[in-house]
Design goal:
135 residues; alpha+beta; Glutaredoxin; four-stranded mixed β-sheet; 42% helix; 12% strand; globular
């Protein structure tokens, strides 16, 4: 799958806003799209101008920090909280649900998510082309 489902393809999907310049992130959302057999998800790169048009309340800096999931009713989930919602809708990820939903564990999952998100360019870049994104 080279083209990800876009929000304009179907009006009633959860929109995953991710870093489209990140190879690691792109690989992960392509995997999610393959696993989404029922078409519940659509995807939008945070670098797409459509993001600021559709979601003016979301800042570029916040979007660079973590993946965002925007539900059709406007509720927004960030980072590990977004992943928990995504996992509930994808049968392939259901084995993770008991671990992800251990009571009071969300702060731990958010910390792990932030650790990976801050290093995402190091996880996927093998040349100097990604240095502009590294802190």
């Amino acid at each position: 799958m080279t083209t990800l489902p876009a929000p304009s393809d179907s009006g009633d999907t959860d929109v995953v806003i991710y870093d489209g310049h990140c190879q690691f992130c792109g690989g992960q959302v392509r995997r999610l799209a393959r696993w989404d057999k029922s078409g519940k998800l659509s995807f939008l790169s945070l670098h797409d101008p459509l993001v600021s048009e559709r979601y003016p309340e979301l800042t570029f800096d916040d979007l660079m920090e973590a993946m965002h999931l925007v539900r059709p009713d406007g509720r927004t989930y960030i980072g590990a909280a977004a992943f928990r919602i995504i996992a509930r809708g994808l049968p392939r990820l259901w084995p993770l649900l008991p671990i992800l939903y251990i009571p009071f564990s969300l702060p731990l999952w958010q910390a792990i998510y932030r650790l990976i998100a801050r290093r995402r360019y190091k996880l996927s870049c093998d040349d100097d082309s990604c240095n502009i994104h590294r802190g």
